[in-house]
Amino acid sequence: MFMDIFMEDWIMGAVVTLKKGKGITIKKGGMWIYDNEIASVAGSFKNGDIVIVHDFDGYPLGKGFINQISKIRIRMLTRDIGQDIDNTFFIKRLENAWEYRKKTVDTDSCRIVFGEADYLPGIVIDKFADILVVQSLALGMDRYKDLIVQGLKEILARDGINIRGVYERSDAKVRLQEGMERVKGFIGGEFDTEVQIVENGVKYYVDVKEGQKTGFFLDQKYNRNAIRKLCKDAKVLDCFTHTGSFALNAAQAGAKSVLGIDSSGSGIAQAVRNAELNGLQGVAEFECADVFDKLPELEEAGEKFDVVILDPPAFTKSRNSVKNAVKGYREINLRAMKIVKDGGFLATCSCSHFMDYELFTKTIGQAAANVHKVLRQVEFRTQAPDHPILWEAGESYYLKFYIFQVCSMP
């Protein structure tokens, strides 16, 4: 059962007082308090403890985890100063997260917990069929990781979902900023870490141990489905294909041919296996190559495609590198527009929070102007609903996804 390990002194906590005029974000519904927003801390605590937060005038604002090592000094848990942070609290948050997914997405494989956007800051939990993958990124939440996992397993069991294994992928660099080591491994008994999932009718092998992040990018689920209608009888190029997800959706939707490109040899090998799993190896082919090199080669060879898909990794993970990221996004979009047939389609996205909507849109517009193309917007989309966007937690909104028809100047 979900054990009770909470002590009275954890519940009471130290008291943090904010500077006058600070805490604007959390007062609007955000979840983070930065180090430069704090005036004082009264009482004893250890990093990772739960503390009470007061405004400058003593008005209670709620409770959260504190970590003096991190610039994100406090991650809020509740605005109710009388709320006990106990087993009942975490179970209720997990129940709410699961009920939300059941109403909004296909739950065979989905993100069940999305950190701050589910009011469980610093923890992500993905479900791949009967496997859970956990990513713990904040010291405070890390204390409760095992209890949260056990509680979630019990909640899923109520719906007849028996989880056969849990794997931890807390190997992101951001843990170092919390004063934690990067770790990965089994939570509980060992199991085969390759799991087969089905998404949009396409089958995939997912390696939760060695795959990128938690093993598979669930956030593009419905964006992958959105390109299918454009791909019947089409010649398709899928850039940054990873393990072939967009490419296989295109192939299954009836494309004449699909070429997937990625610089990761292991990713390409997995894409080939996924094509074979779906009987699409005759349609979808994959090549290990640098997209920045390959696009000019295709242009020079006179290749033209009906549909080009750009799903790059985040070119920037900080504000300091946004300028270089803009150059990268502009370059690949410019090159892609050159090899799209007149009247063909370009699907392009950015998964970087720091490349915001306005900047990404402007960058694509600059690329189109540079190659004298007219863009007709078909759709604008974001991440799948199992990655909900909390409006006052800007970091939860990161994926921007456009589909354009690319036309020559009339």
Quick recap of the structure?
The protein has 410 residues and is α/β, with parallel strands linked by helices. Helix content is 28%, strand content 30%.
Characterization of this structure:
There is one protein chain. With 410 residues, the protein is an alpha/beta fold. The chain folds into three domains: 12-78, Archaeosine Trna-guanine Transglycosylase, Chain: A, domain 4; 87-193, RNA methyltransferase domain (HRMD) like (Transcription Regulator spoIIAA, 2-Layer Sandwich), CATH 3.30.750; 217-408, 3-Layer(aba) Sandwich (Rossmann fold), CATH 3.40.50. It contains eleven helices and 20 strands. The chain has a seven-stranded mixed β-sheet, with helices on both faces. A six-stranded mixed β-sheet has the order 2-6-5-4-1-3. The longest helix is centred in the first third of the chain and has 18 residues, at 87-104. It is globular and about 70 Å long.
Mean pLDDT, all residues = 93
Helix content: 25-40%
List low-confidence stretches.
Answer: 1-11
Shape assignment: globular
The CATH topology of the largest domain is: Rossmann fold
List the defining traits of the structure above.
single chain, 410 residues, alpha/beta, Archaeosine Trna-guanine Transglycosylase, Chain: A, domain 4, Transcription Regulator spoIIAA, Rossmann fold, seven-stranded mixed beta sheet, six-stranded mixed beta sheet, 11 helices, 20 strands, globular
